[in-house]
Amino acid sequence: MEEGGTDIACCGPNITEDEEARIMAAREKLMNGELDIYAGPLSDQDGNVKAADGETIPDGELWQMDWFVDGVITQQ
Question: Quick count: other Cβ atoms within 10 Å of Cβ 34?
Fold first, then answer.
C-alpha cells in the first residue's frame, strides 16, 4: 500500500466504531510490517501444507500462487 498497492476502503455504515478501530489497527500493522497475511499455518483446498506454522510465503511465491487457501469457495 505504501508503494502504490491497493489500500483498504474502510468503512461502511454496517461497521461499528469498534470494528473500524480493529480494521484500522490491522491496517497499521500491515503498513509497518508487524502483520503478515500469508503466514502459516496455511493449507490449500486439498489439505497440502503451503506454509507451516510460523513460516511466511515470500512475495515471489505469492506472484506465482496457483492454489486456493483451504476454506475459500471458488466460483463454479
Answer: 9
Query: Do 10 and 26 touch, CB atoms closer than 8 A?
Result: no
Report DSSP letters for 52-70, one per residue.
-TT-B--HHHHHT--SPBT
CA–CA gap between residue 48 and residue 26 (Å, rounded):
28
Alpha carbon separation from 14 to 4, 28, 52 (Å, rounded): 28, 21, 35
CA distances from 1 to 6, 53, 57, 71 (A): 6, 26, 18, 26
38: Cα within 13 Å, side-chain hemisphere: 13
Whole-model pTM: value is 0.57
| pLDDT digit string, tens, across residues 12-59 | 899 999 999 999 999 999 888 888 888 899 999 899 999 999 899 988
